[in-house]
Design brief:
Shape of chain B: elongated
Strand content of chain A: 15-25%
Distance between the termini of chain A: 57 Å
Largest interface: A-B, 60 and 43 residues
Number of helices of chain B: 7
CATH superfamily of the largest domain in chain A: NADH-ubiquinone oxidoreductase 51kDa subunit
Radius of gyration of chain B: 17 Å
Radius of gyration of chain A: 26 Å
Strand content of chain B: 5-15%
Order of helices and strands of chain B: HHHHEHHEEEH
Shape of chain A: globular
Strand order of the largest sheet of chain A: 2-1-3-4-5
Number of strands of chain A: 18
Oligomer: heterodimer
CATH architecture of the largest domain in chain A: 3-Layer(aba) Sandwich
CATH class of the largest domain in chain A: Alpha Beta
Structural class of chain A: alpha/beta
Largest sheet of chain B: 4 strands, mixed
CATH topology of the largest domain in chain A: Rossmann fold
Distance between the termini of chain B: 46 Å
Number of helices of chain A: 21
Chain lengths: ~550, ~140
Amino acid sequence: MNIKVGMGSCGIAAGAGEIFDLLVKRAKNTDSGVTPVGCNGMCYLEPIVEVDGKMYTQVSEADVDDILSGIKPLHEAEQNQNRIALRNCGIINPENIDEYIEKGGYQPLNLTPEEVIEKVKASGLAGRGGAGFPTWFKWDACRKATCSSTASPCSDNKKYVICNADEGDPGAFMDRAILEGDPHSVLEGMLICAHAIGRGAPSGNSSLRDGALVEGIIYVRAEYPLVIKRLEIAIIQARERGFLGNQFDIKIKAGAGAFVCGEETALIASLEGERGMPRLKPPFPAEKGFWGKPSNINNVETFANVPWIMQNSGKAANTKVFALTGKIAKGGLVEVPMGCTIKDVVFNIGGGIQGGKNFKAVQLGGPSGGCIPASLQDTKIDYKSLAETGAIMGSGGMVVMDESSCMVDMARYFLDFTCKESCGKCAHCRVGNRRLLDILERICNGSGKDGDIELLEELSEEIKAGSLCALGQTAPNPVLTTLRYFKNEYEDHIKNKKCTAKSCKKLLTYSIDLNKCKKCNLCVKKCAANAITDFVINDEKCTKCGFCESLCKFEAVTVN
Amino acid sequence: MSCECRENLIEILQKTQEESGWLSRETLEKIAGETGIKPAKVIGVATFYAQFRDKPVGKNLILLCQGTACHVNGSAEIEAAIREHLKVEEGEITEGGKFTYSNVACLGCCSLAPAMMIISKEKGDKTYGKLTRESVVKILDEY
């Protein structure tokens, strides 16, 4: 038997580590092999064990013997997604380079740099980090750039290939899954990029006939220890085989927790050991990047697409990976073709909403993105259609919300995040977003005033216009999109002091329905605020924690 | 000053914190002295990044995920339960130094929302998912 255990961070957190150890122990004296693989995307079914192509899901330690004897009924793997970036995730052992090579990895590249760039252009690959900028254009600009900087004391004629693995969007884990499940696809993508930007002379420039010396750097979030471990193993193995090391090598740099470092120029500042603060562009990193040298920065998913493009001439790389989370029934990682609709993703792949509630909205693009209401669920997933709704494609976080999610609270949540993560350079972002948050907080607390909505709109436009980098320019998007589609909720909060989603605590009143109450005294005893006497809740003492509601077996506690 | 040294400042801070758990003013000044980087700059970098702590940490470090998926699935309830149970504010250490409670941006295991991670020298690093008010208290009591 060929046994595979899903060992991404999510699988391990669900208990896959214990299952793996037990399987190895039990299979020791049999002809079965047990291999760890990355996340196959079906996170809602973790821990997952795959035996000869069939899946066991939500495996517990008690199931291990059944798996080895083949007793437990098997589920056929559902695999109706068109996978490019995730092609090997959950299939190969990420700690074994041979399995990657067997799947067609590290094939000799008999192409000139120009041909490589032409192929990337033909595939239509665009930056998967969110902005959707054509990848070939960046590569071409970096290829044509020469090392003219004299400001840097480093040796000359160098270029850098940088992989942005600082996946900071809350609610997104696509890059983590790719790096944990198939690290070599990213390394190979960087290797191909190094060839494209550095090898040989751009025509007419004799001083660079031998090309530039290219170095690779992967900037990884420090919160992803397993990613760093698997990348280290992958880099060592690639060096042993001679793919890395001689002409092109890659090193890992761990970030230190700053969302703004996902912005290219801030990332470069951080790599240089500085505070991660963005600077004005141009010059673009393709001309003046790391230590003033021409640098090409792409996102993890973008690089993971590149080896596939080289092997599949003429085919378009037109998929996007999403982390489908929130109130969704089947949450996980999905790779969908551009052009499918939000409805397809939420209902056909994601299985609809948890607990049969109503679908209200999806949030795309994290703190830079926006909410798209259920009424626009037929919107196609492509860069242009999504931008028309006011949201963005983003890096791939897709958080699904149901009727219990308050949209004003969502806007408040994202602004709270942006305020904490603003680097402080631009006044509009530093102070303006703080003011936006103040207004949103008072609306959620029931102290909203007439004119607040207009103030939010005006301030949002000012912040967008007055900020240097994308963090500030996009920070008001969650406010603007919720105002566009859910203005009635804002008005309800301000005028009627009411939160229809029953989410904003300060606007709720808890009471006990004495017709249903059996006087069991449980809520009275357990209330931490001592707010319940004689089965009446004292609204002034009540902290609206909702504990009594969750305790009551007779559904006697009501919320309004 | 060579770029090599400046470039490695963040790594030096990370390694130092790994050993001592946090970065005191004295430690930062010592790093400045040894690397030749100005103290203002070292402190500037150390205070910019969320990873670096300027206070001692407890034996067990609780990192409660504040990602969007966790927020939608009720991380505020879990936060209330932790504060109540341990009598501790965010970023602070409990009396006796058993726990430090801290919020983090996103742990990246959104399908397990709401989630938290506990970093512990004794028990190793563990991630706990699908938390409820009751389960989080039970988990904390096991430490």
